[in-house]
Amino acid sequence: MIADKKIIVVLPAYNAAQTLEQTFSEIPHDIVDEVVLTDDKSNDDTVSVARRLGIRHIIEHDFNRGYGGNQKTCYDKALGLGGDIIVMLHPDYQYTPRLIRSMCYLIADGVYPVVIGSRILGKGAIRGGMPVYKYFSNRMLTFMQNFLMNQKLSEYHTGFRAFSAEVLRKIPYHLNSDDFIFDNQMIAQIFMAGYEIAEITCPTKYFEEASSINFSRSLKYGLGVAWVSLAYLLQKLHLAKFSFLTFDEKL
Protein backbone atom coordinates (compact mmCIF):
# COMPACT_ATOMS: atom_id res chain seq x y z
CA MET A 1 0.00 0.00 0.00
CA ILE A 2 0.83 3.68 -0.38
CA ALA A 3 -1.06 6.13 1.84
CA ASP A 4 -3.55 3.39 2.73
CA LYS A 5 -4.31 2.86 -0.97
CA LYS A 6 -4.58 -0.78 -2.05
CA ILE A 7 -2.49 -1.33 -5.18
CA ILE A 8 -3.30 -4.08 -7.66
CA VAL A 9 -1.25 -4.91 -10.75
CA VAL A 10 -3.16 -6.58 -13.57
CA LEU A 11 -1.40 -8.62 -16.26
CA PRO A 12 -3.47 -9.20 -19.42
CA ALA A 13 -1.57 -12.22 -20.72
CA TYR A 14 -1.47 -14.04 -24.03
CA ASN A 15 1.42 -16.42 -24.77
CA ALA A 16 3.61 -14.76 -22.14
CA ALA A 17 5.31 -17.88 -20.75
CA GLN A 18 8.81 -16.80 -21.78
CA THR A 19 8.64 -13.29 -20.30
CA LEU A 20 6.21 -13.55 -17.39
CA GLU A 21 8.76 -14.55 -14.74
CA GLN A 22 11.08 -11.63 -15.48
CA THR A 23 8.17 -9.21 -15.52
CA PHE A 24 6.77 -10.54 -12.25
CA SER A 25 10.16 -10.50 -10.51
CA GLU A 26 10.57 -6.76 -11.09
CA ILE A 27 7.16 -5.76 -9.73
CA PRO A 28 7.73 -3.83 -6.46
CA HIS A 29 5.95 -6.31 -4.21
CA ASP A 30 6.65 -4.20 -1.13
CA ILE A 31 3.94 -1.76 -2.23
CA VAL A 32 1.80 -3.97 -4.49
CA ASP A 33 -0.93 -5.77 -2.57
CA GLU A 34 -2.29 -8.11 -5.25
CA VAL A 35 -1.35 -9.32 -8.73
CA VAL A 36 -4.06 -10.48 -11.13
CA LEU A 37 -3.25 -12.42 -14.29
CA THR A 38 -5.89 -13.04 -16.91
CA ASP A 39 -4.90 -15.59 -19.54
CA ASP A 40 -6.64 -15.10 -22.89
CA LYS A 41 -6.57 -18.75 -23.96
CA SER A 42 -2.81 -18.89 -24.51
CA ASN A 43 -1.21 -21.60 -26.60
CA ASP A 44 1.80 -21.89 -24.31
CA ASP A 45 2.52 -22.48 -20.61
CA THR A 46 1.56 -19.00 -19.36
CA VAL A 47 -0.83 -20.35 -16.73
CA SER A 48 1.64 -22.97 -15.48
CA VAL A 49 4.33 -20.33 -15.08
CA ALA A 50 1.90 -18.04 -13.25
CA ARG A 51 1.03 -20.82 -10.81
CA ARG A 52 4.69 -21.63 -10.22
CA LEU A 53 5.35 -17.98 -9.43
CA GLY A 54 2.60 -18.04 -6.83
CA ILE A 55 0.30 -15.49 -8.47
CA ARG A 56 -2.83 -15.71 -6.34
CA HIS A 57 -5.43 -14.47 -8.77
CA ILE A 58 -5.34 -16.30 -12.11
CA ILE A 59 -8.31 -16.11 -14.46
CA GLU A 60 -8.42 -18.36 -17.52
CA HIS A 61 -10.65 -17.41 -20.43
CA ASP A 62 -12.39 -20.35 -22.03
CA PHE A 63 -11.95 -18.73 -25.44
CA ASN A 64 -9.80 -15.92 -26.83
CA ARG A 65 -11.67 -12.70 -26.06
CA GLY A 66 -9.13 -10.32 -27.56
CA TYR A 67 -6.81 -7.70 -26.11
CA GLY A 68 -9.61 -5.40 -24.97
CA GLY A 69 -11.74 -8.24 -23.67
CA ASN A 70 -8.80 -9.43 -21.61
CA GLN A 71 -8.42 -6.02 -19.98
CA LYS A 72 -12.10 -5.85 -19.15
CA THR A 73 -11.74 -9.04 -17.12
CA CYS A 74 -8.63 -7.65 -15.41
CA TYR A 75 -10.29 -4.40 -14.33
CA ASP A 76 -13.45 -6.14 -13.17
CA LYS A 77 -11.41 -8.43 -10.94
CA ALA A 78 -9.21 -5.61 -9.58
CA LEU A 79 -12.22 -3.50 -8.67
CA GLY A 80 -13.89 -6.55 -7.13
CA LEU A 81 -10.81 -7.03 -4.92
CA GLY A 82 -11.17 -3.47 -3.66
CA GLY A 83 -8.20 -1.94 -5.45
CA ASP A 84 -7.70 1.80 -5.03
CA ILE A 85 -4.94 2.03 -7.65
CA ILE A 86 -4.91 -0.39 -10.57
CA VAL A 87 -1.81 -0.76 -12.76
CA MET A 88 -2.11 -2.43 -16.15
CA LEU A 89 1.21 -3.91 -17.25
CA HIS A 90 1.87 -6.08 -20.29
CA PRO A 91 3.64 -9.27 -19.13
CA ASP A 92 5.82 -9.38 -22.25
CA TYR A 93 8.58 -7.37 -20.51
CA GLN A 94 8.44 -4.60 -23.10
CA TYR A 95 7.89 -2.10 -20.26
CA THR A 96 9.86 -2.01 -17.03
CA PRO A 97 7.80 -2.79 -13.90
CA ARG A 98 10.27 -0.69 -11.89
CA LEU A 99 8.25 2.41 -12.76
CA ILE A 100 5.18 1.12 -10.91
CA ARG A 101 6.27 2.80 -7.69
CA SER A 102 6.60 6.26 -9.28
CA MET A 103 3.33 5.92 -11.18
CA CYS A 104 1.40 4.88 -8.08
CA TYR A 105 2.78 7.68 -5.92
CA LEU A 106 1.46 10.27 -8.38
CA ILE A 107 -2.02 8.81 -7.97
CA ALA A 108 -1.84 8.08 -4.23
CA ASP A 109 -0.69 11.64 -3.51
CA GLY A 110 -3.63 13.05 -5.46
CA VAL A 111 -1.49 14.67 -8.16
CA TYR A 112 -3.06 12.85 -11.13
CA PRO A 113 -5.82 10.21 -11.42
CA VAL A 114 -4.21 8.46 -14.41
CA VAL A 115 -0.53 7.93 -15.27
CA ILE A 116 0.82 6.31 -18.41
CA GLY A 117 4.34 5.16 -19.26
CA SER A 118 5.41 6.87 -22.49
CA ARG A 119 7.98 5.29 -24.78
CA ILE A 120 8.20 8.50 -26.79
CA LEU A 121 9.21 10.96 -24.07
CA GLY A 122 12.99 11.13 -24.24
CA LYS A 123 14.89 9.03 -26.77
CA GLY A 124 14.34 5.53 -25.45
CA ALA A 125 11.99 4.16 -28.11
CA ILE A 126 14.43 3.81 -31.01
CA ARG A 127 17.29 2.97 -28.65
CA GLY A 128 15.15 0.19 -27.15
CA GLY A 129 14.61 -1.38 -30.55
CA MET A 130 11.25 0.07 -31.65
CA PRO A 131 11.13 -0.40 -35.44
CA VAL A 132 11.50 2.92 -37.25
CA TYR A 133 8.22 2.50 -39.13
CA LYS A 134 6.40 1.92 -35.83
CA TYR A 135 8.02 4.95 -34.28
CA PHE A 136 6.93 7.25 -37.09
CA SER A 137 3.47 5.67 -37.24
CA ASN A 138 3.14 6.28 -33.49
CA ARG A 139 4.23 9.90 -33.90
CA MET A 140 1.87 10.60 -36.80
CA LEU A 141 -1.13 8.99 -35.10
CA THR A 142 -0.40 10.84 -31.87
CA PHE A 143 -0.13 14.17 -33.72
CA MET A 144 -3.52 13.55 -35.34
CA GLN A 145 -5.10 12.50 -32.04
CA ASN A 146 -3.79 15.51 -30.16
CA PHE A 147 -5.15 17.80 -32.89
CA LEU A 148 -8.62 16.23 -32.96
CA MET A 149 -8.90 15.79 -29.19
CA ASN A 150 -7.19 19.06 -28.18
CA GLN A 151 -4.69 17.30 -25.94
CA LYS A 152 -0.90 17.15 -25.62
CA LEU A 153 0.06 13.56 -24.91
CA SER A 154 3.35 12.27 -26.28
CA GLU A 155 1.82 8.83 -26.89
CA TYR A 156 -1.64 7.22 -26.94
CA HIS A 157 -0.44 3.70 -27.66
CA THR A 158 1.41 2.55 -24.56
CA GLY A 159 0.52 -0.68 -22.76
CA PHE A 160 1.62 0.58 -19.33
CA ARG A 161 -1.07 2.50 -17.43
CA ALA A 162 -2.11 3.22 -13.86
CA PHE A 163 -5.59 4.33 -12.82
CA SER A 164 -7.35 5.39 -9.67
CA ALA A 165 -10.34 3.15 -9.01
CA GLU A 166 -12.56 6.23 -9.29
CA VAL A 167 -11.65 6.58 -12.96
CA LEU A 168 -12.36 2.94 -13.79
CA ARG A 169 -15.71 3.13 -12.03
CA LYS A 170 -16.58 6.30 -13.91
CA ILE A 171 -15.83 5.35 -17.50
CA PRO A 172 -17.95 2.72 -19.32
CA TYR A 173 -15.04 0.57 -20.48
CA HIS A 174 -17.35 -2.40 -21.07
CA LEU A 175 -18.74 -0.54 -24.09
CA ASN A 176 -15.31 -0.54 -25.73
CA SER A 177 -13.99 -2.89 -28.39
CA ASP A 178 -12.50 -6.26 -27.45
CA ASP A 179 -9.65 -5.58 -29.89
CA PHE A 180 -6.54 -3.38 -29.69
CA ILE A 181 -8.49 -0.13 -30.16
CA PHE A 182 -9.75 -0.61 -26.57
CA ASP A 183 -6.79 1.39 -25.19
CA ASN A 184 -7.57 4.44 -27.32
CA GLN A 185 -11.25 4.29 -26.46
CA MET A 186 -10.30 4.32 -22.78
CA ILE A 187 -8.20 7.45 -23.22
CA ALA A 188 -11.06 9.16 -25.06
CA GLN A 189 -13.43 8.22 -22.22
CA ILE A 190 -11.00 9.51 -19.59
CA PHE A 191 -10.71 12.89 -21.31
CA MET A 192 -14.47 13.02 -21.93
CA ALA A 193 -15.01 12.53 -18.19
CA GLY A 194 -12.76 15.51 -17.48
CA TYR A 195 -9.79 13.69 -15.99
CA GLU A 196 -6.16 14.56 -16.67
CA ILE A 197 -3.47 12.09 -17.67
CA ALA A 198 0.16 12.32 -16.56
CA GLU A 199 3.03 10.77 -18.52
CA ILE A 200 6.27 9.34 -17.24
CA THR A 201 9.26 8.45 -19.42
CA CYS A 202 9.41 4.68 -19.88
CA PRO A 203 12.30 2.80 -21.49
CA THR A 204 11.15 0.03 -23.76
CA LYS A 205 12.52 -3.25 -25.07
CA TYR A 206 11.75 -4.87 -28.40
CA PHE A 207 12.75 -8.48 -28.93
CA GLU A 208 11.38 -11.64 -30.48
CA GLU A 209 9.23 -12.67 -27.51
CA ALA A 210 7.65 -9.22 -27.06
CA SER A 211 4.09 -8.95 -28.32
CA SER A 212 3.44 -7.29 -31.66
CA ILE A 213 0.79 -7.10 -34.36
CA ASN A 214 1.26 -7.62 -38.09
CA PHE A 215 0.90 -4.97 -40.79
CA SER A 216 -2.75 -5.65 -41.64
CA ARG A 217 -3.81 -5.44 -37.99
CA SER A 218 -1.65 -2.34 -37.57
CA LEU A 219 -3.50 -0.71 -40.47
CA LYS A 220 -6.84 -1.68 -38.96
CA TYR A 221 -5.67 -0.27 -35.64
CA GLY A 222 -4.61 3.03 -37.23
CA LEU A 223 -7.99 3.46 -38.90
CA GLY A 224 -9.68 2.67 -35.60
CA VAL A 225 -7.58 5.28 -33.81
CA ALA A 226 -8.66 7.91 -36.36
CA TRP A 227 -12.30 6.93 -35.87
CA VAL A 228 -12.10 7.18 -32.06
CA SER A 229 -10.48 10.62 -32.22
CA LEU A 230 -13.04 11.90 -34.75
CA ALA A 231 -15.89 10.50 -32.65
CA TYR A 232 -14.51 12.33 -29.63
CA LEU A 233 -14.36 15.61 -31.55
CA LEU A 234 -17.88 15.24 -32.97
CA GLN A 235 -19.32 14.48 -29.54
CA LYS A 236 -17.47 17.39 -27.96
CA LEU A 237 -18.95 19.67 -30.63
CA HIS A 238 -22.43 18.17 -30.00
CA LEU A 239 -22.62 17.08 -33.62
CA ALA A 240 -23.04 13.38 -32.88
CA LYS A 241 -23.31 10.91 -30.04
CA PHE A 242 -21.47 7.63 -29.61
CA SER A 243 -22.43 5.00 -27.07
CA PHE A 244 -18.93 4.45 -25.65
CA LEU A 245 -18.60 8.20 -25.00
CA THR A 246 -22.13 8.79 -23.71
CA PHE A 247 -22.28 8.78 -19.94
CA ASP A 248 -22.48 11.22 -17.06
CA GLU A 249 -19.65 13.60 -17.92
CA LYS A 250 -19.89 15.51 -14.66
CA LEU A 251 -17.51 14.42 -11.92
Q: What percent of residues are in strands?
A: 5-15%
Helical element count? 9
CATH superfamily: Spore Coat Polysaccharide Biosynthesis Protein SpsA, Chain A
**SSE succession:** EHEHEHEHEHHEHHEH
Indicate the radius of gyration in whole angstroms: 17 Å
Top CATH class? Alpha Beta
Order of neighbouring strands in the sheet with most strands: 3-2-1-4-6-5-7
Q: How would you portray this structure in words?
A:
It is a single chain. The protein has 251 residues and is an alpha/beta fold. It has a single domain, classed as Spore Coat Polysaccharide Biosynthesis Protein SpsA, Chain A (Alpha-Beta Complex). It contains nine helices and seven strands. The chain has helices spanning 20-25, 46-52, 66-80, 100-108, 124-127, 132-149, 165-170, 182-192, 215-236, and strands spanning 7-13, 34-39, 57-60, 85-89, 114-118, 160-164, 197-201. A seven-stranded mixed beta sheet has the order 3-2-1-4-6-5-7, sandwiched between helices. Helix 6 (132-149) runs parallel beside helix 9.
